# Entry
Amino acid sequence: MVETRRRRRPISREEALARQEKKRRRKEREALNRELAKGPIDLPFCLLVLLLTGIGLVMLLSASFPSAYYDDNNPILYFQKQGVFAIIGVACMLFIGKIYYQRFRGAAKPLLYLSIVLLVLVAIPGIGLIRNNARRWLGFSGTSFQFQPSEIAKVAVVLYFSDTISKKKDKMNTTRYGVAPYVLILGVLSLLMMLEPHLSGTVLILGVGAVLMLVGGINLTWVAAAVVGAGGVAFLMFSGVIQYGQSRLAMWQNPWLDPQGDGYQLVQSLLSIGSGGLWGVGLGRSRQKFLYLPEEHNDFIFAIVCEELGLIGATIIMLLFAALILRGYWIALHSRDRFGSLLVVGVTTLIAMQTFLNIGVVTGLLPTTGISLPFFSYGGTALMVQLAEMGVVLSVSRQMKPTKAG
# Structure
């Protein structure tokens, strides 16, 4: 049997010219992107990140040495571990900042799938590590190799949403393409995280996802529906219909109802903040960190900041965070394309929400929940991920549109 080869359809001269033109334009874009990738990073943003990381390490050393000495007979244990992760994280930030940010598109789907698998694993008894009545960690018990899959899930949501939303443009105004797939993803991640339970992480993921959908151009009717839904859930919780978190709500309204029990942590935090006054008691001279205030080097480190540096010092640190967040959104506004803008909006929104929620919890503005302060709270994995996210912003900043002088 003789095999017959399929004859190729002859290409017309117009088609050949169109292909050559397409190939030429692609090469020009690649050359332009390579040239843009050599641009300088946004120096103000980088300096703000380094400044906050440095101040955070100093405050961690001050806040953690009593508990580190009590737990391990080594007063600088937590500082040493955090310092190593900070050095690695800064190196990662600078390395990622040199990568052409369009390459991050390829990691969007794999990272999302990986985060879902890890969240499923952490929910399985015997695999996820339990701490403070919550199963949020993976790793080896009794070792320093432990991490929260929720940190990876946050980055995955930012990458995947930015990648897909940037390609849809006008389709984001439709329910089928602009709402349904993202609500499904957020629902799956939220369900897995609430099994831990991890309320603050769930709020962060839902918040950053909603912001990216809003910036991406979804119909404002869905935004109004989300606001009404969130308000309805809050009303049901405050009215007692939803029983989850009722003790936290009660202690948030008046922690002195049980100052030695459920309200103990918030009472000690408020005492720490109040004793700092205007100028603070001085760096390293906090009294509440001597095993009075729980999680003084982690979720409630801002209370030690207020006690030692006072209202003036705490305000300066909050202004540094505000400057970082505003600079991040400024970079997003001047990004060269839609993908870069969405990336920076997502990362900056994560930092903004986490900072606001942590300070709100520590000062009693919001009900107590476990959420760390970026660059300050103890946690090597979280610090490395945050610095890597800052590297993504720096990568986008290298290819910003030139601003008009004058």
Notes: Strands lie at 129-131, 134-139, 146-147.
